[in-house]
TrEMBL record:
Pfam families: His_Phos_1. GO terms for cellular component: cytoplasm. It comes from the Bacteria. SMART domains: PGAM. Substrate binds at R9, H10, G11, Q12, T13, R14, F15, N16, R61. PANTHER family: BROAD-SPECIFICITY PHOSPHATASE YOR283W-RELATED, HISTIDINE PHOSPHATASE FAMILY PROTEIN. Gene3D superfamilies: Phosphoglycerate mutase-like. Transmembrane segments: none annotated. PROSITE patterns: PG_MUTASE. GO terms for molecular function: phosphatase activity. This is Histidine phosphatase family protein. Coiled coil: none annotated.
Length: 201
């Protein structure tokens, strides 16, 4: 019973451009971010995709990306797809971020600053994606637009050997799902029209 989900990061935002920490806080897409989302739409059109349903986090940058990339306005917004909460670090310079731990992320570092634990994000994303897929039938193809840290925690949770990849804005991850078993086919960068990662068969 195979389903397909394209999980995608939002386009560049003003805070991305300014190198500001952006989790639960939000900022609008830049002109480049709009161009990136448009490139993603071109890519989906080249593949001939007709998404059964389009999902997005509730944050503006993700919703706007989903609308542009899909060409649709009937986006289903899910809080479970939101970005990690970085607490009092929100809006501050990215230079203040602690070092990343491979395979884990930031761990519980931001909890002491009013933020979210990486493992809680992993659980939240996994539950949300499984729940939305449970509403679909075999052969359905869905798009879900989320965020960099949240997506990374998701695939670390569902893959035995997760890729070590830094996702560009509007990076597209294609998963085939059978009985809640996730298989990552590739990660595609629509701006440079190149693969950031491909699972070896």
């Amino acid at each position: 019973m195979t389903k397909t989900i394209y999980l995608m990061r939002h386009g560049q935002t003003r805070f991305n451009e300014l190198k500001r920490i952006q989790g639960v806080c939000d900022s609008p897409l830049t002109d480049l971010g709009i161009e990136q989302a448009t490139k993603a739409r071109d890519y989906f059109q080249e593949l001939g995709l007709d998404f059964t349903t389009v999902y997005s986090s509730t944050q503006e940058r993700a919703v706007d990306t989903a609308e542009i990339a899909s060409g649709r306005s009937d986006i289903i917004r899910l809080k479970g797809l939101k970005e990690m909460d970085f607490g009092t670090f929100e809006g501050q310079s990215e230079t203040l971020n602690p070092p990343l731990t491979p395979g884990i992320g930031y761990g519980d570092y931001f909890v002491q600053h009013g933020g979210e634990d990486s493992m809680a994000v992993r659980q939240r994303m996994g539950d949300t994606v499984r729940d939305l897929l449970a509403k679909h039938d075999e052969g359905d193809v869905v798009l879900a637009v989320s965020h960099g840290a949240a997506i990374a925690q998701f695939y670390r949770g569902v893959l035995e050997h997760p890729p070590q990849v830094r996702m560009s804005n509007c990076a597209v991850l294609k998963f085939d799902v059978e009985d809640n078993d996730f298989s990552l086919d590739y990660i595609y960068d629509p701006i440079n029209e190149s693969l950031l990662y491909e699972t070896k068969q």
